[in-house]
Amino acid sequence: MATSTTKPAFKNICVYCGSSPGTDDRYVAEATQLGGLIANADMGLIYGGGDRGLMGAVARGVLAGGGKVTGIIPTFLIKREQEHGADELAGADMIEVPDMHTRKRMMFDRADAFVALPGGIGTLEELVEILTWSQLGQHDKPMVLLNSGGFWTPYSELMDHMEGAGFLHSPHRARPLMSDTVEGIIPALQAA
What we know:
The chain is an alpha/beta fold and 192 residues long.
């Protein structure tokens, strides 16, 4: 595995992302690229354990770069999110858990930082939970959203709307950093 010239402040990055590839080819390409950058920075990937969509792309990117991958997947999702079986992600450490709550808690406990790529309701739910825990003072781990093509701009606008309506307060606002490029993610995490 290639080594970076700067030692990361953390060992493992949890990546939240879609189990689908999305409608723009850039999503898969950027997930794969992020995986390579994680491996190159000598960091491990913590993720949801699927081999499909962006989840599979980021895991394959880390493995191709010689990095460490830990997937955490509930039993009931194995058939849905692991289309190709264990061979697709040979070399990854897969942990089977009983339910989503255990999955999310284990991902949180093993991660030193969080990244959200494009995704759907599951990705949004994971992100909002981590932000809520931060707002409530349960952690201070850095978070970055890949805002490629403005994907997360509507989320940011919703947070602005909540704040303007008096439901989200500035001193407690757990607003993640945004990066418009994959290359900007790790430096943003390290600077946080």
